Amino acid sequence: MRVGIIGMGWVGASVAISTLHAGLARELWLNDVRPGLAEGEAMDLAHGASFYASADVRCADVEAMRDCDAVVIAAGKGGRPEQTRLDLLRENATIVRDIATKLRGGRATIVVVTNPVDVLTHVVWRASGLPAARVIGTGTMLDTARLRQVIGRELAIDPRSVHAQVLGEHGDSEVVAWSSANVGGVPLRAIPGWATEREAAIATEVRTAAYEIIRRKGATNHAIGLVTAHLLSSLLRDERRVLTASRVHDGSAGLGGEVALSLPVVVGAEGATRVLPPAMDATERAGLARSAEVLRTAIASL
What we know:
Layout: E1 2-6, H1 10-21, E2 27-31, H2 35-46, E3 56-59, E4 70-73, H3 89-103, E5 109-112, H4 117-128, E6 135-137, H5 141-155, E7 162-163, E8 166-167, E9 175-176, E10 182-183, E11 186-187, H6 199-207, H7 209-217, H8 222-236, E12 241-243, E13 246-249, E14 259-262, E15 265-268, E16 271-275, H9 282-300
Parallel strand pairs: 1-2, 1-4, 2-3, 4-5, 5-6
Antiparallel strand pairs: 7-10, 8-9, 10-11, 12-15, 13-14, 15-16
Helix pairs in contact: 1-8, 3-4, 4-9, 5-6
């Protein structure tokens, strides 16, 4: 498998090391607008070859990455503590549109990590000419991982046994699907000791987690690197996992017209194909509809 990563800042570097540790790529191609940075990262990662599955790590032009199996776009401006993800929109839209245009006509499935990831997934889909299933944003996969970690902490249970999802925008309008959350097949709200009055605070903690990390260290990178490698694994190994990844939908879950956001989708060799909308109560359905409108407005502003 050949994987390309475009943008070698904090996030791109974390995606690269997570991809190598997962053994996903026999060839890992790196690119950055600062060629020296990509070259330095390639050298640094190559020096660790004794500690991961055999892989050739090197630099490559964006156009050459059309021949990759998957290309990760992590290029763009990072957020400042006072910014929302949508504040990053215009500048990053220009950057990813240029990259997607250069990848047009290639065989690579594109994975979008750059924020605001949902709107930029739509931008990349338009510019690349690829089917919607082959342009996949990491979406609320990270939010979902954060939610499961917090629920696991609250219940003293491994987060891998928690099945709960964040839907919609990877951002301020995201929706926690509390009504379908369960732990080991037991509805979350039926577990003794679960306090429903804590749900609003937990949702806020999950939604604002990135801002808290950025305020302390300047960026979020490790968890999103792991998330992206997890998505790549399902894609490249045809694992057909159900992930809360972002892709362009047109009518899914009763949301009406075209919009890119996160719903549970089956991810395998053909991309993010089948949509499996979870059970939602009326409040959650209304929240998801609002999230879709927020994202449509942002897309229309470009």
